[in-house]
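The material for today's practical consists of a large collection of protein records. A record pairs a protein's sequence with a compact description of its fold. Instead of coordinates, the fold is spelled out as a row of discrete tokens. We will come back to this pairing of sequence and fold again and again. Here is such a record, shown just as it appears in the course material.
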Amino acid sequence: MSDANATQRMEVRGESDGESKFVAEARNHELVMDDPEAMGGEDAGAMPIEYLLAAWTGCLNATVRAVAPDFDLDRSVMSGGVADDTLAEFTAAVEERCPVSDNLAVETPPDMTLRRE
């Protein structure tokens, strides 16, 4: 997946909103991150690591749907009727084509700007 021609620039903006709360905006979507009360937050949103895991699993889900036709699979078959070798090959293809898996495995240089307000 690490292909310079496949690079896509993403932009996320956000600001701190309290002791541990962070509110980000990606396209027109708001993402609220916060620590649980037991960690000093207000539990106003998921923790950043939870968003990271959700992003990865969401990307894997989308990639499964994109790769399944290459293996003549559909969701009803994948729930149990796939040979072990096919499933292993399919899983490897999904992981290889998932952009978030690639970003986790290969260094992605960030372009970050911090501003004081």
Summary: Residues 48-67 form the longest helix (20 residues).
